[in-house]
Amino acid sequence: MISGDFHLTKQIIPGIKVFPFFLIFFLILLPGFQTHNLDASRKIRVVTSVFPLFEFAEAVSGERGEVSLLLPPGAEIHTWQPRPSDIIRLSSADLFVYIGADLEPWLHDLLKSVKNPDIRILEASQGISLIDAEGIVHSENEREHGAHDPHIWLDFKNDQMIVDRIAAVLSEMDPDGSSFFNENASAYKEKLQGLDQKFKDELKDCIHQTIILGGHAAFGYLARSYNLRQISVYGLSPDSRPTPKKLIEVVELAKKYGIKVIFFEIHVSDELARVLAEEARARTLVLNPGANLTKEQLKSEKTFFDIMEENLENLKDGLICK
Ligand SMILES: [Zn+2]
Predict the structure, then answer these.
(1) How far is the CA of 72 from the centre of ligand 1 (A)?
(2) Residues 316 and 202 sit within 8 Å (Cβ to Cβ)
(3) Looking at the structure, do residues 191 and 289 belong to the same domain, yes or no?
(4) Host H or E run for residue 26
(5) Could you tell me the distance, in angstroms and rounded to a whole number, from the CA of residue 262 to the centre of ligand 1?
(6) pTM for this entry
(7) 14 in a domain, yes or no?
(8) pLDDT tens digit sequence for 175-195
(9) 117 and 218 together in one domain
(10) Does 106 lie in the same domain as 187?
(11) Is 165 contained in some domain?
(12) Distance from the CA of 38 to the center of ligand 1, in angstroms?
């Protein structure tokens, strides 16, 4: 059921004549080979690529899991590069959860270096319909490289699907914990539904519907969910340089619609947003995709919900909502 799962099952080469006692030997060993049974006394080691997945996995696995985040504090997911210590960490992990859809361009090289045939791998974006920078939906078989928006966690309905899939994989790995995982998943999904409803209620009556971003176009899913649109000077990833033409276009647009707020991200320099704001006689506010936390946010134990609520407050301020 879980696609994108690279779990290796050891196979016996067919056609080899074996003595009966060998056969018995294999039959005894086979179950142990085929299912990777976890030692019940230890926790499931989960590693995730981005912060939202870290929080989802932690919420679902509870005390039966030991979850860690691959990204170091403050690192930017699109441009980060794994270190040798990350290979070591994944070599002793039981489950790795990542987004996919080209969010983690380093993933294939990293997994090639990891010598851990028993690791389970869950690609969170599998089965989720992806949109492109313009918000157009792409079905799974027309996924073109780099053409789609990988920030799927900014749609809280997608998050509920991901939470369910994490619970399903954990249940397969630790069947005794199955009802515990499912209960945790239900409780967490209820919170996500509440968050979705709050965004819906509080963003339904705003003077502006356009989010102007001095950062990259990470908010396509959020914009789609609440009938907004995003305009970014970058593309889907912050490593491209915006053209002067695009900058002028965005400033003109802000002036035309009387938009007084330019949003910027924490992990990408706000310099550009400040220049835009100055040109458009606007101010800047943070809009955080939440892929990672800064050191300060980690210290103050910020949750995914805290970050999204801060986004909502700033959106209400910037878009002038009732
Ligand atoms: Zn991004």
Answers:
(1) 16
(2) yes
(3) no
(4) helix 20-34
(5) 17
(6) 0.85
(7) no
(8) 999 999 999 999 999 999 999
(9) no
(10) yes
(11) yes
(12) 35
